[in-house]
Amino acid sequence: MEDDETELQNPFPSPPSHYTKYSTHNLRLLSLLRERAGDDVQNINQREVLSDQTEVPDWELTQLEKPRVDWILDEPEAYYDVFGDRWFVKDKILSLGDAGGNQLYPSDPTIDRRPALRSILRSLLVTYSSLMSSLLLPPPLNPEEPPEWQRHVDWISNLTTNLMAAANDLRPVQARGNLESMMRRQLELRREETKALHEKCDALEDKLREIRSSVANIPTAQSWQLTNVPRGASNGNSLIPLDSQSAQKNQQLSDVDVLLWAEQIR
Fold first, then answer.
1. Dist. CA 111–CA 32, nearest whole Å
2. Which of 104, 137, 182, 241 has its CA 20 to 30 Å from the CA of residue 175?
3. Comparing C-alpha atoms, which of 217, 216, 238 is closest to residue 228?
4. Neighbours of 65 (CB within 10 A)
């Protein structure tokens, strides 16, 4: 009980304890159960159906079924509650006209709004100029009649609301454009990195080609003098390199000499 109260007080609660049931083995058992039982999964004994399987749980495997949301989608305002917050499935951003405001630009997003927005901006500047002039007028004689400047302020509020609403309608377009520019920049960076890798690989291949050519120019046939050291010597048998002149002076070893030497060093 104390653990439950502590969990409720946590601002970021952990997943429910039954999340451990969604293991790969249990999900495979559920799939096998539905395959063998068909649509009549609720009215069968899962232990009898899965008698050839191991580690069949005591609780019903049908608890692992995904919740159905089709009945939520049929509602006019489909929503669901998570941790006390309500989320709408078909979330829709209301326009200024739908929200009860005086919308001065077309609601259809396919229509060009720039002419309407220019008219709103010009009207805003003219109304602001009229507001400055109305401040010099004397107050009205009738106290119930609103002053001239109040009418201009209300109209300026309406115009600025339309400008802000029209700008907010362009947020998805702006976000899409920013995302496209970010993806284009990432693509350019990857192309630059790939080009740098190819240049580095080409440089390494040229270096390896130079090393191969330099190694190929080194003479591979060298003469070695085989020295026979008696047994028990600490140096053992060794090969002593000779230059070309001394190699010509020494007598070449035959295959029989090599075999005799191999027998001696066994």
1. 55
2. 104
3. 238
4. 11
> Dihedral of the CA atoms 38, 39, 40, 46 (nearest 10)?
50
Residue with tokens 């249990």: 26
In this structure, what token pair is assigned to residue 140?
């009205």
**Residue recorded with tokens 């200024």:** 96
Let me know: does 101 contact 111? Beta carbons within 8 Å: no
Alpha helices (H) in the chain, listed in sequence order: 2-9, 24-37, 46-49, 70-73, 114-134, 148-169, 171-216, 244-249, 255-264
List all residues 6 or more positions away from 121 whose beta carbon is below 8 Å from its beta carbon.
163
Q: Which residue has the higher pLDDT, 245 or 143?
A: 143
Residue 92 is predicted with a pLDDT of 65
Q: For residue 54, what is the DSSP state?
A: S
**If we measure between CA atoms, which residue out of 222, 228, 235 comes closest to residue 263?**
228
The winner for highest mean pLDDT among 156-170, 189-203, 205-219, 242-256 is 189-203
